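Good morning C.,

I know you're traveling, so I'll keep this short. The sequence:
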Amino acid sequence: QVQLVESGGGLVQAGESLRLSCVASGSTWFANHDLEWYRQAPGKQRELVAEITRLGSTTYADSVKGRFTVFRNIAKKTLTLQMNNLKPEDTAVYYCKHPPDDWGQGIQVTVSP
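The tokens, ready to paste straight into the viewer:
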């Protein structure tokens, strides 16, 4: 089993930036997995925000393309989500995910107008 701990959330104004980090521990070959960031806003379903594959390619939800960047540090077993030009609609609890089904505890991101 893999343990995931997120950090870096908080309250910012629209247009500002935040960097989320997710540190993995436990039994994982970090480089051999596709890793993902999800978010869940109040009253909405959890949605995939960004993914980085084991080969290093990335994909993003249309709503965050050009503003968010996902990257990883394999040696430190850390997954990062750099979020720029934040918008109020980015307000949500953000989760990192490691296959097959390990999730972090979630971290709140709140963007004020």
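Safe travels,
E.
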